[in-house]
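User: Sequence in, structure out. Go.
Assistant: Echoing your sequence, followed by the structure tokens.
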Amino acid sequence: MGRLLHISASPRDEASESLRIAQVFTDTYRETHPGDEVEHWDLWDGSLPDFAVGAKAKMTVFGGGEPQGAEGAAWAAARRTFERFDAADRLLFSVPMWNASVPYVLKQFVDVVSQPGWIFTVDPATGYGHQLAGRGKRVAVVYTSAVWGPPLGPEFGSDFQSTFFNDWLRWTGLTDISEIRFHPTLTGDYEEARRTADAQASGIAKGF
């Protein structure tokens, strides 16, 4: 039995296009993968740990030490977050564009789970090692925006949303990435963009 984990970064509930498109994906996935488990992780639900003390613990680990006390508790909380993420063999992220990039709660998730020995290793000669590579995990990402769109010039903003997040995924070793796009822009055909995104989501979910 497989496991699909939907990690959502929008707090807008029914008003969110990224969540709506992700629902199309998960509905199709449930229909076509009836034996698989599907879980939704709302990053706004308070489950992400604060990482101020965790950042100190990270440097303790880098130095070859074992975090103790408050650092140890923060490190354990980060580890639990990573294990929830790592337990899925199929990952769906719904990511709205905020100020040309991703919502800060998604960056918090990235910073919490991106730890030495879990996500990456570092070698002075060869650079980073990608710890999630070669494990058969697949990723789908729903990218949405309202103003910026691929055909528009820089006066309508820039895409640091998918460029940042896709780069992070590949850095972890997750390279099997499917994108679902919804960028209707201010003057585009909103309903047509919706139909296209829904068809993408459904089509990818069937073979995911």
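User: And one key feature?
Assistant: The beta strands are 3-8, 37-42, 90-96, 120-123, 127-130, 138-144, 177-182.
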